[in-house]
Write a structure and sequence with these properties.
By secondary structure, this protein is α/β, with parallel strands linked by helices. It has 6 helices and 11 strands. It is globular. The relative contact order is 0.18.
Length: 225
Amino acid sequence: MIVVIGSPVGRSIQGRITLAGLASATARAASAAGAQVQLVGRVGDDPPADAVLLELAAAGVGHVAVLRDPARPTPIIVEPEGAPDTAEDTTDDIALEGDAEATTSLASAAIELDAEDVELGLRYLTDFAVLVLVPPAEDGVVRIAVDGARWASARLILVVDGQAPAGVDLPPDAIVLSAPAADPDAAFASVVGRLAAALDSGVDPATAFEGAVGVDGWAVATPET
């Protein structure tokens, strides 16, 4: 089983709320690749949360460890006029509902988890082979994720928004990936999800990575000598 740590967000397209965000797209891609997936995250206790959780379930992603928070609304990405009616994340800059002037990255749009959220979620999900942590995540959350992966003898995939946290002792076999500022068509998230699914099925990391990027016609760059 794969555990993805990161909160889902909603996306408003012509008044309809659909599933969006880096964590959701990663989990959905891993599920589409045939893996059993659970998401650890936090959403509001509101109709948009109902919509995104229903889409997670339809995609085969479990959400028993997604917390409902009545004190915070589910973040909604508002698409500009004329945006295509698609469930993929296609915008470079996005505006959050209620603050039309503010823009943010897809990675940082989600509700940020605290260490207690993650620790509680991993208490319910003890039997997993791969743990994926996506931003935003402060150092305390990274430490809990690292400890959880070590306890479960699971492979850790750490997606960072910039550089890996300097104050956290990562396992030597951890895979660290840098999230792009924008993820047109959820291409990066799909690679992470397929990579996690391959590792979950027992494929070695090098082969898993080559297979994950090769689906969309990408290639692993070879440094010139």
